[in-house]
Amino acid sequence: MALGLVLTTSVAAGPVHAAGADSAPTGSDTSHRVISVVHKISKVTGSSQVRREETGDRVEVALSAGILFGKDSARLSASAERRIAEAARAIREAGSPAVAVAGHTDDLGSAAHGLTLSKQRADAVTRVLQRHLPKNVRLSARGYGEARPVADNDHEAGRKQNRRVTLTFHRR
Questions:
Q1: By C-alpha distance, which of 128, 118, 113 is closest to 74?
Q2: CATH code at 67?
Q3: Per 3-state DSSP, what percentage of the chain is helix, strand, and coil (rounded to 5)?
């Protein structure tokens, strides 16, 4: 298992001065104020078809549609149950009270078809999660179709990344 750490810092151009300072900053002051720092940890789980990202207490697990479903189908594959059960274990360990399940597609075919298929896939994953999670965990399923791509749809490699189901939850 590989672990990567990316530190992103946003910097605003402009002078910085301490609150209550005796003098205002001069026009030649070249320091900058840091607006936000985001720590993003990505774990590669040993499969290029499963991605896990953590930002603060928010966790997103993205499962490639290729490991869950056949082409243009919302019927789960034989190995899908195991993958979803692994994700459910991570959700239980996190103690999350709620999980958002989101289906996504590439831009091949009509937008209406992609929206329907993505919702059907999110619903299928939700049904399996229900069997592996405590009854008090709230599950919501939504299909986004092609509306939220993570890669370029101009090439098959990008379309493959866009065909996914994501599980978003928070650690307690």
A1: 118
A2: 3.30.1330.60
A3: 30, 35, 40
Instruction: Summarize pLDDT for 82-111 with one digit per residue, the tens.
Output: 999 999 999 999 999 999 999 999 999 999
Total structural domains within the chain: 2
User: Residue 162's closest CA among 103, 122, 119, 93?
Assistant: 103
**The dihedral formed by the CA atoms of 147, 152, 157 and 161, expressed in degrees to the nearest 10:** -40
C-alpha count within 13 angstroms, C-beta hemisphere, residue 57: 9
Beta bridge partners of 126: none
Q: Are 103 and 117 a contacting pair, CB within 8 Å?
A: yes
Query: What is the pLDDT averaged over residues 26-47?
Result: 39
